[in-house]
Amino acid sequence: MIKKYLIDIILKLELYKIFFFKKLFGISYVSYSLTKCFKYNISHILRKYGAKIGVDNNFIEGIIVDNLYKNGSNIAFKNLIVGNNTYIGKGVFFDLAEQIVIEDSVVIGAKATFLTHWDVGNRAMSRYYKRKTGKIVIKNSSWIGANVTILQGVTIGEFAVVAAGSVVLEDVPPYSLYAGNPAKFKKKIK
Q1: Among 35, 49, 165, 174, which lies 20 to 30 A Cα-Cα from 183?
Q2: CATH homologous superfamily for 2-188?
Q3: First vs last Cα of the chain: how many Å apart?
Q4: Are 101 and 138 in contact (CB under 8 A)?
Q5: 45 contacts 15 by C-beta, under 8 angstroms
Q6: Alpha carbons 35 and 31: distance in angstroms, whole number
């Protein structure tokens, strides 16, 4: 009983510290804190600053978030939507230039990367590679393996599996297994 009480106090102190230092250093401090904070606080922090997070989710330490919406102090993570009963592994990277929607009962392996845009900026190469953005959607009960990279505009269908280390450039149909770089169809699951 005393141990649980002490843990609750430590978790709340961490949240208060993050919220206090956000006032001093801005939303970038909050983003940095997600990489270091206790996993039990990740949902609270994301919700407080605009993400829509369901219930019974399991975030593991080391979540990395980039391209935050900075015009409103409490909506920085507004482009992140996570359903219920989802597992998000250690070191997952979310590029929030566009919306990332993760539906219910999804499993995302360690160090998966979600890139909602590409842009070389104001450089000579921009003549050949224009800025491209797009929403990423991961449908119900999908499984994204460790070290998978999903690019802008991709939808992963229900009960789909993307094998570890794959790079996904196009939509993955429901009930299918994709693997490789670039990810290609391997077999139907159902």
Answers
A1: 35
A2: Hexapeptide repeat proteins (2.160.10.10)
A3: 47
A4: yes
A5: yes
A6: 7
- Domain boundaries defined on the chain: 2-188
Q: What are phi and psi of 27, to 5 degrees?
A: -65, -25
- List per-residue pLDDT tens for the chain, 190 residues long: 777 888 888 989 999 999 999 989 988 899 999 999 999 999 999 999 999 999 999 999 899 999 987 665 567 899 999 999 999 999 999 999 999 999 999 999 999 999 999 988 888 888 888 889 999 999 999 999 999 999 999 999 999 999 999 999 999 999 999 999 999 999 999 7
CB count in 10 Å sphere of residue 88: 23
Q: Counting runs of H as helices and runs of E as strands, what totals does the chain give?
A: 3, 19
